[in-house]
Specification:
Elements (H helix, E strand, L loop, with lengths): L2 E3 L1 H6 L5 E6 L2 E8 L2 E6 L13 E3 L2 E3 L6 E3 L5 E3 L8 E7 L2 E5 L1
The chain binds FE2/S2 (inorganic) cluster.
Length: about 100
Amino acid sequence: MARIDVTDAVQSLGPGESRAYAAGADEIAICRGDSGVFAVADLCTHAHARLTDGFVLGDLIECPLHQAQYRLDTGELVDGPECPALRTYKLFEQDGRWYVET
Ligand code: FES
């Protein structure tokens, strides 16, 4: 398990924004939803569109291609075409820095 410093990405996020972050083989979307900051896989499980090209809506992220909507906290699919849940990553703050575990 790797711990990656994503402080710059987190601090650059305004409300409802997302940033793509590549960490080795992991392509991660760091998102600021209504309830805080979350890290989820950046590729939609339906047809692999990039979710950071989509929209953060409250505590959901919506795919730009066919509008699948996933919960940012659990990755659960809540609307759109049938597809698996989205991978989520642990995101946490420690000593003023933000980290993702992959
Ligand atoms: S590629 Fe995301 S909903 Fe189809």
